[in-house]
Amino acid sequence: MGRLKALLLAIGLVTSGVAMAESEFSIMSGIQASPHSTVHTAQGDSFYTSWEGKSLSFPPYYLFRYTNWVNDDWGYAVNFAHAKAYADPPTRVANGFTVLEFTDGANPLTIMTMRRFETMGGYRPYAGLGVGISLPHVEEERNGGVKTFGYQYGGPVLVGTGGVSYDLNDKWRLNTELQVHYLKLDVRVAGGRLKTNLITNAINIGASYRF
Fold it and tell me: CATH code for 21-210?
């Protein structure tokens, strides 16, 4: 009888903890860009290029995130961003590339630790840090060469985000945030591997549904 009471008490504590937890699913889009980086080619040379994000062109930039708030202040999240990068056309051509881009996304997938702060005037600031991997869609072709076209494992990723949310009601909230990814890309192309350290900066606006 004592063991049964202990078991019932343990189940009650677990279920009460789950009931206190808050989950939300967020969908966002916005403006995403990347600064310059050095590209190391499969042929052993390298060059410095800027990248275009083309956030609103098809396929557009977007972000999905699932967050579980284990208490009122702390939580964890799974974050996926369809971030894009197109090598600057004049630089690309000058270095012998017909195509050099991640048109269907550099696709960082990360796990984040999230922190919420005190509500101020109806707005609640939050921040997050995390790590993960990238699954880029690599499109690369040197002049007269074999074209690389497809998804690959790209390498490790670091992510940081900070923003504010505003509750519309007990289910929906609006979000705006800044999110930065650092992707260490090392991908297969014809003749070897292409490497670059890509940074994506994004201003995101969207909505979250709580459940």
Answer: 2.40.160.20
